[in-house]
What we know:
By secondary structure, this protein is mostly helical. It has a single domain, classed as Cytochrome c oxidase, subunit III, four-helix bundle (Four Helix Bundle (Hemerythrin (Met), subunit A), Up-down Bundle). The protein has helices spanning 4-31, 35-64, 75-105, 109-139. The longest helix has 31 residues, at 75-105. It is elongated and about 45 Å long. The protein starts with a helix and ends with a helix.
Amino acid sequence: MLSYTTIAPALNAILNGASAMLLVLGYRLIRRGHIELHRRTMIAAFATSSVFLINYLTYHAIIHGSKHFPGQGWIRPVYFTILLTHTVLAAVIVPMVLITLSRGLKGNYKRHRAIARWTYPLWLYVSVTGVVIYLMLYQLF
């Protein structure tokens, strides 16, 4: 029988992957002028990332702790470089997402665009590298 501790890492990867797909879709929608669909998609990306964050913190801070990387050789510095950039940017991206979302929802589009051009690629990087880290920790080694 599956338990929360066995499915939580995969659930986190699924949530990160879904967030990345929603971000790309939201970007494409706004580039095509679909403002309302963009808004809904970005709210969904925010919700997905929020559920991820709650699940991640619950799993790692309360239930399981950290998992050590089992890989050896040249892949170790690759993994730790990805992990370091992911972790730093994950901390940076939270206030950026909140500011970007707030400005968009308030209709302050000029200021929204000014920060969104930075938020989007960083948020996408954090979402994608979250999946990569999961694969490296739980699937490849």
